[in-house]
Amino acid sequence: MFLTLLLQATGGMDYTQLLFPVAIGLVVYFFMIRPQQKRASDAKSFRQSLAKGSRIVTIGGLHGLVVDLTDETVVVEVDRGTKLRFDRSAIAREVGTKKEPGTDTVATT
């Protein structure tokens, strides 16, 4: 069957037939692959920039305060005296940094 398809093919090379698959490849690259690589790069740089005292949220939705860091893990305090160890890859985002005592101000209008 494959041989019959090859025999039915035209003899000349038509470059317009090659244009459509190349265009599809470019669209897939610029709209799917490239943005995903950028998000992964941003997430990696964020996880490397974590510091003690950062308030974070894990991918599971657990909120806490970073109290210790190693190359691979993060120790998060979720309540007074309750510390959990996570991989750095489990940290989803930062929600703010630790506030110093006495810096809470109430705005009056």
UniProtKB/TrEMBL annotation:
Q: Which family does it belong to?
A: Belongs to the YajC family.
For whether the record's keyword set contains Cell membrane, the answer is yes
Its localization reads: Cell membrane
Keyword annotations for this protein, in alphabetical order, are: Cell membrane, Membrane, Protein transport, Translocation, Transmembrane, Transmembrane helix, Transport
Q: Which residues cross the membrane?
A: 15-33
> GO:BP terms for this protein?
protein transport
Question: Chief location of this protein?
Answer: membrane
The record, for InterPro entries, names:
Preprotein_translocase_YajC
Name it.
Sec translocon accessory complex subunit YajC
Q: Name one GO cellular component term.
A: plasma membrane
Q: How does it sit in the membrane?
A: Single-pass membrane protein
PANTHER family, alphabetized: SEC TRANSLOCON ACCESSORY COMPLEX SUBUNIT YAJC
NCBIfam families associated with the record? yajC (TIGR00739)
- Write down the superkingdom of origin: Bacteria
Q: Name one Pfam family in it.
A: YajC
